[in-house]
Amino acid sequence: MPILEALYNAPRRSANQIYMLLIILLILSQDSSFNASIHKMILPGVPWYKERLLHQTSLGSLMVIILIRTVQYNLSKLRDVYLHTTCLATLANMAPHVHRLSAYASQRLVSLFFMLSRKYNKLAELRENKVQLAKSNSIEGNSLSDDVSTELHIYTDFLRLVLEILNAILSYALPRNPEVVYAIMHRQEVFQPFKNHPRFNELLENIYTVLDFFNSRMDAQRMDGEWSVEKVLQVIIINCRSWRGDGLKMFTQLRFTYEQESHPEEFFIPYVWQLVLSRCGFSFNSGAINLFPIDPPVEKQDTDGGVTHKHHNGDLNMHGLLLDP
User: What would you report as the CA-atom Rg of the chain, rounded to the nearest whole angstrom?
Assistant: First the structure.
């Protein structure tokens, strides 16, 4: 809870602090027992979450909400690829173990795909414009086109990863997550533009298999009056019991791990000393502190005392699917 609260207040945190908190959550998400247990712990309330009243929400649902909120913050402020990847990797590790994800968390998950798709569409349009500029044999135009293409490729990977997360929930935990099914049905139009995309079509086939199953059950129901959220959800819950996964293509389950770089102390020792100097209340002569026994090339420290260009200090390894470089 303190980690999630700190991420909720990300604008008050330094980039280094955000990275450290996300790395901790990623490491925790590598443990399947952790992923299962966080959905069993029900929180009576989350007083520090201001956008919405969260009542009787599982810790797992709250973690999904905060990770997605962090992606939103990064998209608008930091724009750091590694931060996006770490959040999505943690969600991917959690996905097969999701149990009774809340309505709000489920909605945010589908909205995450929509949010990233809007960024993708803007980049695709921008690349098309740059390509037209490059046709004039302008070196600058070619350079700009390459930059946009690289960013577009990155967002293609992000969108695929969100689809992998949704697929993992539908493949391994659909009967336990009627709210996820409802959220996908409610916003099914956001997937339509990508149905024939070569990177997404197999994953979307699974989503449309689920949509076809539940839409047909809805059509078979005779209702007096208008459909309400409660009535739709009730139909979904009833038909979740008869869901057998027929027609779904099973993909290799994603598993992200965090690995240290070869010299992690170059980041962690200065970072820990920065915390000591700023929080302990003792007075130190900072000029006399010798962090390393030798004098290797040391990166400049930023104004917060952290190390610049060394914030992530590790790589994400994914077994089963490799993101293109």
Answer: 23
- Alpha-carbon distance 30 to 92, whole Å? 10
**What's the rounded Cα separation, in Å, for the pair 166 and 207?**
8
Residues 189 and 204: their CA atoms lie apart, in Å, by 12
Give 23-69 pLDDT, tens digit per residue: 999 999 999 999 999 999 999 999 999 999 999 999 999 999 999 99
CA–CA gap between residue 5 and residue 15 (Å, rounded): 16
pTM of the full structure: 0.82
Other Cβ atoms closer than 10 A to 152 = 17
3-state secondary structure of 316: strand
Residue that has been written with the tokens 């009967």 in this structure = 175
Find, among 154, 153, 161, 167, the residue nearest to 67 by Cα: 161
Residues 130-176: tens digit of each pLDDT: 777 766 655 555 566 677 888 889 999 999 999 999 999 999 999 99
A 10 A CB-CB count for 200 gives 19
Give 17-22 contacts, CB < 8 A, sequence gap 24+: 18/70, 18/78, 18/83, 19/82, 19/83, 19/86, 19/311, 19/312, 20/271, 22/70, 22/83, 22/86, 22/87, 22/90
- Please, which residues bridge with residue 42 across strands? 58
Continuous segment of H or E residues that includes residue 216: helix 201-219
The CA distance from 158 to 85, in Å, is 8
